[in-house]
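The step that takes the researchers longest sounds almost clerical: writing a folded protein down as plain text. Below is the pair of lines this work produces for a single protein:

——
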Amino acid sequence: MFNHQLSQEQEKETREALKVEEIVNLPPQLQDFWSNIPPDVELTDEMFENIKAFLLQNRGEKENFCLIQGDFGATFYLVSWCFKNGFVPIYLTTKRVAKEVVRSDGTVELLKVFRHGRFRRYILCR
């Protein structure tokens, strides 16, 4: 559950650092839902039934990582669900480099460049 496509660098890390053998993307209908969770409604269990069913149907025999980033409430819900159902929820970290450019009219343009940092596991508070 991620709003973007993984870069080549990110895919390479999944295979090398996490030992992922297969990357399974959400089908278009579920990806569209995840990328466009309506901000004006309450979240419900029922909203996520299709995503949970998809995850269960695509569970492998080894460690099952689940990349989850997006709407904060939806992310919290699915991370919690993953912990309860034997999945390993992870997220991406980034390195940010910002550069300010002062223009001749006195305005400041801020350029932000994001580089892949690493995948990190969500952890539970104990």
Notes: The chain has one domain: 8-121. The helical segments are 8-16, 28-35, 49-57, 72-84.
